[in-house]
Amino acid sequence: MNYLQLTEIDVNEYCELLKSNPISGTSSAAKAFCAKKAKSVTAPGSTNLHFPDLSAVEKLGKEIDNYLSDPRTASAGNQEREQYEAELCSKTHLALKDLPYEVLDDPKFWQYLAVNYFSPFIMWREVGALGRGNIVTYFKATPYYGIPLRLFLRGQAVFEGTGSYDLGAAIPMATDFWRSHILKVETGRARQIGSAFAETHRDKRIMTKQLRNLAKIINKMWANVYLYEYDSKNARAFLKDSRKRSESGSR
Amino acid sequence: MAVENRDLRPFDDLSEMQTWLEEKVTLHVCPNEGAGQIEHLVCGAGSTLRVDPRTLATADIKLHIDKDELVTVQRDFATQFAKRLGAKKHDIFSIVLYGTSSFLHFTDEIIRWGFEDLSKMHGGFSLLNPDGSRPRSLRLPHHGTEFHLVVILNSELKPQVGLPHRLGTWLARTTFRLADPAEGMGFTPRHLTDEIRAELKLSSQTATFPQINTDGISLLEADLLDEFVLFYVDSPTLDRLSANPLHPQSALYQTQIFIDALKFIVAEFQHLENKNELRLSDVDKKLIGRLLRVVSSDNPQLLQSWLEILRNQPALFIAEIEDICKYQTRLDESLVLMLGGNK
Description:
The complex is a heterodimer.
Chain A: E1 2-5, H1 8-20, H2 27-37, E2 39-42, H3 55-69, H4 71-74, H5 78-96, H6 101-104, H7 107-125, H8 127-132, H9 136-139, H10 149-162, H11 175-183, H12 191-203, H13 208-221, H14 232-248
Antiparallel strand pairs in A: 1-2
Helix pairs in contact in A: 2-7, 3-5, 3-7, 5-10, 10-11, 10-12, 12-14, 13-14
Chain B: H1 15-24, E1 25-30, E2 41-43, E3 47-50, H2 53-58, E4 60-65, H3 69-84, E5 93-101, E6 106-113, E7 125-126, E8 145-153, E9 170-179, E10 190-192, H4 194-200, E11 208-212, H5 225-228, E12 229-234, H6 235-243, H7 248-270, H8 280-283, H9 287-295, H10 303-312, H11 314-324, H12 327-339
Parallel strand pairs in B: 3-9, 10-12
Antiparallel strand pairs in B: 1-2, 1-4, 4-7, 5-6, 5-8, 8-9, 11-12
Helix pairs in contact in B: 7-11, 7-12, 9-10, 10-11
């Protein structure tokens, strides 16, 4: 399997261009940059030299462009931006989940995706970072910050936990919840526990302090228990009990 | 030898099994491509084995015990412990191997056995799917895989003081980690084109050239190899390597390029005026720290001694890099292909 990648140096260079001239972040300018810089490589161990079918992500890139071209979107508040990110998680996972893992495991592939398909979204979603000069964080393939990897991982956690994408966008203003309490910690890899945690937060929103207490109770459990063993029924019972304990202040 | 810094548990567990896992179980990487059968690479309990991305993506991976007579003993220990927990036999325990990707954030169950199945590890139990395909945990050539081999309680028991009762409680466990030697080093060979040759005043017969990055990031400031040095490789050669990554000669040359880049770092380190004053904490989070982690197989207790070796015995340091990169294996594969004969 052949595929395209962008190195960290390429991404740094691209983000320098964005800083000096934000128009470099339009879809056409980003694609022109990739056409010049992206390098074709063969996945280690692969004898198949075909390129993966990226038509679904290409289509998603166009859908994002259309959404962002609406004048109302430019002035969207943080809540709308978070909600649109939530909706993109399922679409990003759906568009990429059938690619070979040998390709998905390469951070340089994700950097190519970020620049080639997600530049306008990154600049819109992380407009504050663009102003502060650290937009590069969101183009690099860091699992919790880099877009589109963080979109994919959130979609993956939801899909593999529940078999559908419904939960992904069901909690308003939840980017930090997914990042801090699911994706950054072991909990997200125990799919049933992660889903049960998200469900309980969806059903009755947990305030920040209590959310941290609940997360602490779950994270402490990992010292002695492999929570991967919990099916959805056990996971819900565990979350119910842990939530009760967090609300009563016991650990 | 058993690890000394054991976890302190709030209840009794299978301490005999813990020792057995650490001493008797290994993970074998069995390269099966290239010229002939290559000897197995062995990853001990609690350690990291660094293998190149091609091997990570193509080799068979096996869980292995050398002798199986102690399996019966472990089974007896498990039965005795099960009885203390109020069960009749050891079927309240499962032996599970999980494969984890930290980058793609998943943990999959690869195998699940009862104590009756333990002897399957004798002679090596392949982690490939029965049809020979690879589970996704074995398809991670860039970030590698962390394996957790765990004995767990597979059902919820009635709580008793000083004894485990929760579903999923681990009673003995160990880890094995497979990683790419270049993991986290941030190394990308650059194309040495005609234009760059002219710019750097290099002849047409120069195949590789390490150029210190003109961005001005010093060796001690750099987080990644690419930030400090641009390692150029003749452009058509690099294209050929990319197009034929499986070929033993390609694999050999890719390994050689990586080793050369690290040799350059080792050489540059010798030129630092303050190299003798540097403490581990000065370099730990930077490129040099990453290099120390590679040669120490991620053992934090060895980082300081490898820093001393880097300072005082650079040839020995480079020799270890060759070992970590399995350079001799790559050389053998290539020579057998070119010259014939056996390894």
